[in-house]
Amino acid sequence: MKQWVxxxxxxxxxxxxxxxxxxxxxxxxxxxxxxxxxxxHQIDGRKVxxxxxxxxxxxxxxxxxxxxxxxxxxxxxxxxxxxxxNAPKGMAVFAGTLxxxxxxxxxxxxxxxxxxxxxxxxxxxSFLNDVAVDGDGVVYVSDTHTGKVHRLINGxxxxxxxxLAGANGLYTxxxxxxxxxxxxxxxxxxxxxxxxxxxxxxxxxDGVEALNDGGFIVSCWAGLIYHLQEDGTLQLLLDSRKExxxxxxxxxxxxxxxxxxxxxxxxxxxxxxx
Length: 274
Fold this sequence. Notes:
This protein has no helices and 24 strands. By secondary structure, it is mainly beta. The N terminus is likely disordered.
């Protein structure tokens, strides 16, 4: 992917790489329990969807939350794939371990036997939200309430960035970490640089996914989905705020160019062909 230097300030203008607006979903899986995040993964050679379910209050330490396992076509394989979490949100996988943001802890789960192998309490955290992992196995987790991004390296936590009001959506790409914070998207590098990639989102950024032909899909929890093009242009693909349908931490399958949208308070996951 090209290095990004553009700054987007308006949601406007289409170009050759613009996407069509999202219309009816390809399918919708109902009766989920406050789904917050969708992660596309392979288990035993089969493409699946891992869906974090808060179930109780989004800040309640009630051990009601978990992770559901869905097939790539939305069929529920095992809704109780992992249970006993509190209010799980963003997820990432590295070397067979699933990392989940769970309120004040980063939880490590062995996908082979679905057991919690480690809990990493994050000092001072109050609302851990999204998780991303880079190619070296460094795990990043955002804390929306404190405006910080923490990282786990060789089993030890430290603070990677702070002062990012509303820090939420995370995505790693090569040596860069993209951070959605409030109505802005930033790009940080291992060298310590931080660049403003885009602003002008109408609501706070939630999910961030890189597309297979360049650019990003960005969701805002309130019910917005944007295509952020490589030239920095923001294109609104979906606005479901009037219907009060949330668009939380999205998942994306580059092989099929399919977007998976957890609707949170509507208790479903929707699939859209891009």
